[in-house]
Every structure is written in C-alpha cells, then in structure tokens.
Design brief:
The chain is mostly helical.
C-alpha cells in the first residue's frame, strides 16, 4: 500500500477517476456544421436539380422546398440530435444542471441557424412564411428530442443504441411503408400510419398552418410518446440508483 503524506500530492493508483465532461467540446462545435449541411442537403435538389428537369418528380418541384427543409429538421431533431453527445465521447452518466443548460443552448442555436434556410425554402416555394406554425413545430420537436436524450442518458450506453434505432424507425418507417404501399396496393390503407412519424406532423403543421387538422393527430401521438419517455426515464434512473446502492 502506498501513502501520500504530503499535502497536494496525488496517487495515481488510488481515488476515483475524474468525471468526464457531459460531451466533448469538439462534438458540440461540430453540431452546427452538421445541422447546416443536413438542411442544405435537403434544400439543394429543389433549388438546383428541379429547374433543369422537364418533368421533375413531385418531391423535386420548387414548391416542395419548405416541406423538404422541415422534414430534414424533424428527422435531425428526433433521430440525430438527441444522441449527439455520445457520438464522439463517453455517454453522460448523470443529468446535471450543466447538462440541461447546454441542451437548451443547443436548441436555441439550432433554431437560430435554421431561420435562414426556412426563409430561403419558403421563398423558393413562392410562399409567405408565417413564423408561428414552423416555430411551434420546431419547439415541439426540441422538447421531444430533449426527453428522448434524457431517457437515453438514464438508460445507459447499451440501451441508448436501441433508442437510436427506434427513433430512426419512427421517423422513416411510416414514410417508407406509405411509399411501398403507394407503389403496390395504394396509399389509402396506410394513410393513418403516417401520423406516427414526427416528420409528417412537423411538415403538416409548418406548411399547412393551424387550420390543417392533420397535424393534430400526430401531436397526439407525440404527446403519448413523450409521456412514455418520462416514465421510462424515471424507471431507468431509479433502477440504476438501486443497483449502485446494492453494489
């Protein structure tokens, strides 16, 4: 056994390791770059490709630019942003005040960076931008993504991988199923399945406005999933606390 009688000295073989930062600074700096490139990737087809096609596909026409940007933002905020802290470093073990503060700052930053893309998309689509519905859709997605991030953090790294898969499936699964149905039996049998996807609800609210009743069904789904995430986060948190006490 080694001793350290002198004040201020350290023993590398003893004592708990220093707690890692909630997420690496490099990962946080790369977030706005990835966000802007992602939105630009979905905006460019309607701006650069569609004008050179005699008969562009429905999703390549200029008037679909707003829906394309909103769909890209919805997928990013639901399936990518909640798990961003784990992409380049250790998964956070505790939800602290600093963790919540950085999450809120990230959300504000992403909304601010998305505004120029929204203005360009609505201009390309030849529509006047009403700020209320798009901001409401973005705020709802940010709240849902924050709950998803907190639940994954409480669950731990192993379970978080399943959360990533589930979030991606919830965003893309209904759309892929509807497209497959439209190419085979028609879209009607799977019309209501689309409402499960947060991408669909965000697009309908942001582009259709408050008068479009279709987004309300998706909002109901989102509220149900959010309540489920709260219960899952509490269950994982108390479960981990009990295991630590037992050890």
């Amino acid at each position: 056994m080694t001793t350290c009688p002198e004040a201020g000295c350290s023993d590398k073989g003893q004592g708990p390791a220093a707690a890692p930062a909630p997420w690496p600074t490099a990962s946080w700096i790369l977030l706005p770059l990835a966000w802007c490139l992602w939105l630009l990737l979905f905006l460019l087809p309607s701006m650069l490709v569609a004008p050179h096609l005699e008969l562009p596909r429905p999703w390549l026409t200029a008037d679909t630019a707003p829906a394309a940007v909103v769909a890209a933002a919805a997928f990013f905020l639901t399936a990518i942003w909640p798990f961003w802290p784990a992409l380049a470093g250790p998964w956070p073990e505790h939800i602290t005040g600093r963790w919540i503060g950085r999450t809120v700052l990230e959300g504000i930053m992403l909304l601010a960076l998305a505004m120029p893309f929204a203005l360009v998309a609505w201009s390309v689509g030849g529509r006047a931008l009403e700020f209320g519905p798009p901001l409401a859709a973005a705020a709802g997605l940010l709240v849902f993504g924050t709950l998803l991030r907190a639940t994954a953090a409480c669950a731990g790294p192993a379970a978080a991988r399943w959360f990533i898969f589930a979030a991606t499936l919830a965003c893309a699964g209904p759309l892929l199923g509807a497209y497959a149905a439209s190419e085979t039996t028609g879209l009607a049998p799977l019309q209501r399945v689309l409402e499960i996807s947060p991408v669909v609800g965000a697009v309908r609210l942001a582009t259709g406005g408050w008068n479009d009743p279709a987004w309300q069904e998706t909002a109901g789904w989102m509220l149900g999933w959010a309540i489920l995430l709260v219960f899952l986060a509490l269950g994982f948190r108390f479960g981990r606390a009990r295991r630590q006490v037992a050890l």
